[in-house]
Amino acid sequence: MTKHAAFAAEDAVTAVPPPAQASRLFSSFPPRMASDCKKAAQLGRMDLAVSGVLRAGSLVDSMKASSPRYSKFAASGDHEDWMEKHPSALEWFEAVQAAAKGKQIVMFLDYDGTLSPIVEDPESAVMTEDMRDAVRRVSQNFPTAIVSGRGRDKVFNFVKLEELYYAGSHGMDIKGPTTVSNHKMADEVLCQPATEFLPVIQEVYEMLTAKMESIPGAMVENNKFCLSVHFRCVDEKEWDGLSAEVRAVLEGYPDLCLTKGRKVLEIRPSIKWDKGNALEFLLESLGYAGRGDVFPIYIGDDRTDEDAFKVLRDMGQGIGVLVTKFPKETTASYSLREPAEVKDFLRKLVKSSVTKG
Ligand SMILES: O=P(O)(O)OC[C@H]1O[C@H](O[C@H]2O[C@H](CO)[C@@H](O)[C@H](O)[C@H]2O)[C@H](O)[C@@H](O)[C@@H]1O
């Protein structure tokens, strides 16, 4: 297994044709309930070919693969080549505008590493007031959802905007806006396909928390339908031991699987439901499924966001934007370097929508 095993199964990159102008057509709030997401998720149950699910042997390789120093794009020529395939959404803003022209933009935003910078302590990953203001303005112009690996309540507590959709636990916990156009709505949960896993997730959380106590820097975060085992602050020499402990616990839980994010191992139910399903669910719920005049934009920084990028690529609509300073294997068609650029992009989008709308 190579050091890049985590990316080995990624599809080849396909750039979405450059694009357009934002319009303010959306009027479909409040959303209608979409089809039964639980049934859909159970149908794909145990389909472990999806979502970069990690097999036992690849775990430590995969943990290393997220470090820039292991990147297969280390040479500067490779970087330039990568940038040609995934141009900056800011520098190529006119192309994005052109592709979205006359279409309804629907905005999907990942949280960590996209709206907030990556920091050592997950509890301290706050977003700036400036970023909050940019997201608020986007949501006043386009339907907007936050799609995060965090528990829904936790990510809401960081973002603090009631007018947005929230898909927490990697899309397994979706709720509509609490406030829509000054009218109060019921606090309505739209989709929770993994409720039966709650007891088992809690059990594994307790077991892993106990195991991680002996590994300095390790931390387990309870994200309701998923768990995150953080190793950002763990000495690399301990990664083997950490991954062995996690694997040992999971051996007793064949209905759970393991994926990897940025210096974090994610434990989740083995159902076919990921950020890509959440994106599709929200588009359907908003009444945009199957429409050619919709332009979804999904901005994310993580491997779990690739599921959503792939959905957009397969739809042939909208764009995926990967937030990264380093070239990475991705299905996203554009890139941005960091949350500050995400904010600039959001502001530009609003400005062009207000000017032309
Ligand atoms: O889908 P996201 O919103 O990107 O959430 C993915 C995970 O993000 C958080 O962890 C990451 O950010 C932390 C804070 O910057 C950082 O310390 C950690 O190393 C990163 O992996 C969050 O804590 C996880 O629960 C999310 O699953």
UniProtKB/TrEMBL annotation:
Keyword flag Hydrolase: yes
Highest taxon of source: Eukaryota
Top-level enzyme category: hydrolase
Catalytic reaction(s) noted: alpha,alpha-trehalose 6-phosphate + H2O = alpha,alpha-trehalose + phosphate
Keywords: Hydrolase, Stress response
Gene Ontology biological process: trehalose biosynthetic process
EC number of this enzyme: 3.1.3.12
Annotated pathway: Glycan biosynthesis; trehalose biosynthesis
GO molecular function terms noted in the UniProt entry: trehalose-phosphatase activity
InterPro entries per the UniProt record, alphabetical: HAD-like_sf, HAD-SF_hydro_IIB, HAD_sf, OTSB-like, Trehalose_PPase
Cofactor(s) the protein requires to work: a divalent metal cation
Pfam family, one: Trehalose_PPase
Family assignment from sequence similarity: Belongs to the trehalose phosphatase family.
Biological role: Removes the phosphate from trehalose 6-phosphate to produce free trehalose. Trehalose accumulation in plant may improve abiotic stress tolerance.
NCBIfam families per the UniProt record, alphabetical: HAD-SF-IIB, T6PP
UniProt name for this protein: Trehalose 6-phosphate phosphatase
Lineage: Eukaryota, Viridiplantae, Streptophyta, Embryophyta, Tracheophyta
